[in-house]
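Async update (no meeting this week)

Hi team, since we skipped the sync, here's where things stand on the single-chain job. The sequence we agreed to prioritize is pasted below, unchanged from the tracker. I ran it this morning and attached the output directly underneath so nobody has to dig for it. Comments welcome in thread, and please keep replies under the output.
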Amino acid sequence: MKKDFISIADYSREEIEAIFNLTAELKNKVKNGEEHHPLKGKTMSMIFAKPSARTRISFETGMYQLGGYALYLSPNDIGIGKREAVKDIARVVSRYNDIIMARLFSHSHMEELAQYASVPVINGLTDYNHPCQIMADIFTVREHKGRHTDLKITYIGDGNNIANSWINLAAKLPLHLVICSPSGYEPDAKTLEYARAQNISNIEVLSDPLAAVRGADVIYTDVWASMGQEDEAAERRKVFMPYQVNADLMAHADKDALVMHCLPAHRGDEITDEVIDGPQSIVFDEAENRMHVQKAIIATLMS
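Output:
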């Protein structure tokens, strides 16, 4: 049976570890200039309802490095769930391509796409979660800290798809995860309940940023208004300004705490220039690792 990559919650710790090991192997091949084409002759459809620079570049380049070809389908090419039924798109694209990556608004559309596709489907992002990003994030932490478990990860900002994905990861790997959000902007309650029920990690939801960053190994933030929430941006900026990751906040954290952001960053809002460009930032290592981790996911699903 085919395997999809829709949520980290669908994977065991052993499967996650195997993806990390393969990521390191593939990344070394790139750094050493070694060609690696296990997917020669294979094709991927990349369905975008939400545009993205990093997602397109990393998947398209990664598929090329693996010896395959990635076809970009813009929001105007496929009106998924609007111009054509999701299940029809899934069935048709499966007849043409060996794997599908989709970046959508609706998570239910992602689940339906996976249900009806006869080839593997990778979740490139939905409004609910962003599993490829968090896999790249924790792999980057492993490179810098020498481990990817038993760490304190503090996420500061909106309880959005990034926060939900960190919570799903904490249901699989032992972490001390702190989600710090203003009242009314907390992460998905069902996801939180599920993760806590696994008894793998200590997961806290706080509203005080100063308390949240104390003792953190990683401080993570994201935009305050995601794509599709542009009309809320002004109001959200007022609510979230006390949650800005700046020099004052970093002064309350350990000097060796790492700073992460999934990008694109709204500099001067959720994070300041001095922090994102500072010595504790690993934001651009994190961005690079999107490609390496996604290559490992593709290769795993098509093995």
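Quick observations from my side:
The longest helix spans residues 13-31.
DSSP finds twelve helices and nine strands in the chain.
Reply here if anything looks off.
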